[in-house]
Write a structure and sequence with these properties.
The complex is a heterodimer of chains A (308) and B (272).
Chain A lengths: L5 E10 L2 E11 L2 E6 L6 H9 L6 E6 L2 E2 L10 E4 L11 H10 L5 H14 L15 H13 L5 E5 L7 H16 L3 E6 L2 H7 L2 E6 L2 E7 H9 L3 E7 L2 H8 L5 E7 L2 E6 L2 H15 L3 E5 L3 H13 L1
Parallel strand pairs in A: 3-8, 3-9, 6-7, 7-8
Antiparallel strand pairs in A: 1-2, 1-4, 4-5, 9-10, 11-13, 11-14, 12-13
Helix pairs in contact in A: 2-3, 2-4, 3-4, 4-5, 8-9
Chain B lengths: L2 H16 L5 H18 L2 H21 L4 H25 L4 H5 L3 H4 L7 H31 L6 H32 L4 H18 L9 H8 L16 H24 L8
Classes of the chains: A alpha/beta (308), B mainly alpha (272).
C-alpha cells in the first residue's frame, strides 16, 4: 500500500444515462480531508463507494489497501456516519449504538460500555436512555457519530455531519473530528459549505459534476473563491435599512432588495457574516433568516471551471 | 503504509483483537433483539396478539351456543387458515427489510461486518417466533374447548390437532418469509403489495376450482390440516398430506434464502 488510507483508481458510477461519479482518481492521507462540492456534485456517491455501499461501475476504490466493495472484514476498520436522518426511532440512543457495535463482533457488555463511552464523548450521556424519535436533529447527528466511532475504526467517513445542527452540536462534532485526527485516524468529511470544511481541515478535495476538480490546500482554493462574489440572503423586517448599512462595507460588491429580503454579493464572506448582525443592530433591523444559498458553491465551481 | 496509518492501526489493534467474527446466526440474534425491542414498543405486535385471541372468543361463543366436537374445531380452523395465519405475518413481516430500505437505516447495518443475510433472518425470527408462541397454544386451547363436552372424542381427534399444528407452524413461517420477500421487492408499499398477493393469489386462486390452486400455500396448508379442499372442475387432485407438508415447510427457508441473496448483493438505493 502507498502512503494513503484511501485510493480511488479511475472510479466511476453511473445510473443508466446519469453519470454520478466520473473517472475519479485520488488518494487520501491520514488526518481530516474535506470532500467539498455543491449538492448533486457526486460527493455522497463517492463517499458511498468508499464505504462499500455502492459498487463502482468502473475502476477500483481501495480502503487501507483493499478493494472495499464486498469486503466484510474491512467494515470492522471503517466507521460511517450517513447524511440522512433515518435512525431507529423506537430504540434509545444507547440501544442503537450498543446493537450496532455488537454487529462489529463485540460482546453485549463490551458493546454497551463502548456505546456509553462514545455517547458521553458526543455529549449525549444524559439523553442516552431517551428514544431516538425524541431527539433533535443535532442530537441524532451526534448519536450517528457515536455509532460510527464506538468500534474504534481507523477510517471514519462523515457525510454532511454538521447539516442542521445547532451551535452546541456543531462544537461537539468539531471537537470529536479534531480528536479523531489527533489520534492518527483518517477522517473524510463531506460538505457543500466551504466555511464548515475550513473549520475542520485545510486539506480538501473539490468535486463538481462527478469529477475531481481540484485537491490540495484549502487556502489556494480560498484565494480563487475570494476573487469571486459570494451571495448571502438575509430575510429581515426592514430590508432597505439593512441594505443601506451593508452597502458601505468595502467588501460588499452589490446589494439587491428582494421583497422582504436582501441578497448581498461579497468578495469576503468571512467578513460579511460578522458584519450583518452588527449592521442589523445599529439599524434596528430584526433578522429572520440568514442563508448562504448552495448556488454559491455551484457558482464558485462554474467560475473555477471557466478560469481553468 | 504511511506513518499516520501505522499509528492508527496500532491504536485500534487492541480493539480489533477483542472483536469476534460475526456469523450469520450471531448477527441474526442481534437484529432479532433490535427488532423485538422495536416491535414491543409499536402497536403491530399487540394488534397481532389481539387477532390471535379472536378464535378463542369465537370458539367459546360457539360452544356456549351448543356447537361441539371436530366440526366446531374445523370451523374455528377456517378462521386461522383463511385469515389469521396469512394476514398476521403480512402485518409483522412485510416491512422487515423494506423499512430499513425506506428509512435508510440499512446504511448503518450494511457498514457492519456481520453478514447481510442475518438482517433478514433476525427480523423474520423476531416476527415469527412470537406468532408461533401464540398460535400453537391457542390452537390447543381451541381444540380443548371444542372437545371438552365429549372428552372421549379427544383420542380420535388428537392426530388431527397435530396436523393442524404442523400446518399452522409451516404456514406462519412460509407467509412471514413470503411477506418479507415481497416487501423487499416492493419496499415503497410493502404491506399493500403483500395484501394484493394474499387476496389475488392465496384467497381467490387458492379457493378456485382449478388445478392452479396447487401453486398456492393455502391449498397445501389445508391439505396438511385435513380441512376441506376446493373441488377442481376438470380433475380430482390427490396429493398426500406429507407432500404438501414438504412443500409448505420448504417454502419458508427457500424464500428466506432468496431474500438473503438479494440483500447480499444489494447496493445503496438512490432515488435517481
Amino acid at each position: 500500500m502507498s502512503g494513503a488510507f484511501i485510493e480511488c483508481e479511475h472510479a466511476a458510477k453511473w445510473y443508466g444515462q446519469i453519470i454520478a461519479v466520473n473517472d475519479v482518481s485520488l488518494s487520501v492521507p491520514g488526518g481530516v480531508t474535506g470532500l467539498l462540492g455543491p449538492n448533486g456534485a457526486g460527493k455522497s456517491t463517492l463517499l458511498k463507494m468508499m464505504v462499500g455501499q455502492l459498487r463502482p461501475s468502473k475502476g477500483v476504490v481501495k480502503v487501507l489497501g483493499e478493494p472495499v466493495w464486498g469486503s466484510r472484514t474491512l467494515m470492522r476498520r471503517i466507521g460511517y456516519c450517513p447524511e440522512h436522518e433515518g435512525t431507529y426511532e423506537d430504540l434509545t440512543g444507547l440501544e442503537m449504538v450498543t446493537a450496532l457495535t455488537e454487529l462489529h463482533g463485540f460482546g453485549h457488555d463490551e458493546a454497551r460500555a463502548r456505546a456509553e463511552k462514545m455517547l458521553g464523548v458526543v455529549d449525549l450521556k444524559d439523553a442516552m436512555h431517551r428514544r431516538l424519535g425524541e431527539y433533535s436533529k443535532g442530537m441524532r447527528q451526534r448519536a450517528k457519530l457515536a455509532q460510527a466511532m464506538a468500534h474504534d475504526p481507523e477510517v471514519v467517513f462523515l457525510d454532511e455531519p454538521l447539516t442542521g445542527c445547532d451551535p452546541l452540536a456543531r462544537v461537539r462534532i468539531l471537537e470529536v473530528i479534531e480528536r479523531l485526527a489527533a489520534e492518527g485516524r483518517c477522517v473524510v468529511v463531506s460538505s457543500h459549505v466551504l466555511h464548515e470544511i475550513e473549520t475542520m481541515t485545510s486539506q480538501i478535495l473539490l468535486i463538481h459534476k462527478g469529477q475531481l476538480r481540484a485537491e490540495g490546500d484549502v487556502h489556494q482554493i480560498r484565494a480563487l473563491i475570494d476573487a469571486h462574489p459570494h451571495k448571502v440572503r438575509v430575510e429581515c423586517d426592514k430590508p432597505r435599512a439593512l441594505a443601506e448599512k451593508l452597502v458601505t462595507q468595502d467588501h460588499v460588491v452589490g446589494v439587491t432588495v428582494d421583497g422582504d429580503a436582501i441578497v448581498v454579493d461579497t468578495r469576503a464572506p468571512d467578513r460579511l457574516y460578522p458584519a450583518i448582525p452588527e449592521a442589523a443592530k445599529t439599524a434596528g433591523v430584526y433578522i429572520r433568516a440568514l442563508t448562504s444559498p448552495d448556488d454559491n458553491m455551484a457558482a464558485v465551481f462554474k467560475y473555477l471551471t471557466e478560469t481553468a | 503504509m504511511s506513518e499516520a496509518a501505522t499509528t492508527a492501526a496500532a491504536t485500534t489493534a487492541a480493539a480489533t483483537t477483542a472483536m469476534e467474527p460475526v456469523g450469520l446466526f450471531a448477527g441474526a440474534r442481534i437484529y432479532r433483539r433490535m427488532a423485538w425491542l422495536r416491535m414491543r414498543r409499536g402497536r403491530v405486535v399487540w394488534l397481532a396478539a389481539a387477532m390471535f385471541a379472536l378464535p378463542l372468543v369465537y370458539v367459546a361463543g360457539l360452544a356456549i351456543a351448543g356447537h361441539w366436537g371436530r366440526g366446531l374445531f374445523d370451523d374455528v380452523c377456517e378462521l386461522y387458515f383463511r385469515f389469521l395465519i396469512p394476514f398476521v405475518p403480512a402485518l409483522t413481516a412485510s416491512a422487515a427489510v423494506a423499512e430499513e430500505i425506506e428509512n435508510k437505516t440499512f446504511t448503518f447495518v450494511f457498514a457492519r461486518p456481520a453478514p447481510r443475510g442475518s438482517l433478514v433472518l433476525g427480523k423474520l425470527w423476531a416476527a415469527t417466533v412470537p406468532a408461533l408462541a401464540v398460535v400453537v397454544p391457542s390452537l390447543v386451547l381451541t381444540w380443548l374447548v371444542a372437545m371438552v363436552r365429549f372428552p372421549s372424542d379427544m383420542a380420535d381427534t388428537w392426530p388431527h390437532l397435530l396436523h393442524v399444528e404442523l400446518a399452522a407452524v409451516a404456514g406462519l413461517c412460509a407467509y412471514a418469509a413470503l411477506a418479507a420477500a415481497i416487501g423487499t421487492l416492493f419496499s415503497r408499499h410493502p404491506l399493500v403489495a403483500v395484501l394484493v398477493y394474499l387476496l389475488v393469489i392465496e384467497m381467490v386462486l387458492g379457493s378456485a376450482p382449478i388445478v392452479l390452486n396447487l401453486v398456492t400455500i393455502s391449498w397445501h396448508l389445508r391439505n396438511v390440516a385435513e380441512l376441506p379442499l376446493p373441488e377442481t372442475a376438470f380433475m380430482a387432485l390427490s396429493v398426500p398430506w406429507w407432500a404438501s407438508a414438504i412443500v409448505a415447510l420448504g417454502i419458508g427457508p427457500g424464500l428466506v434464502w432468496l431474500t438473503c441473496v438479494g440483500v447480499n448483493g444489494a447496493e445503496y438505493r438512490t432515488d435517481r
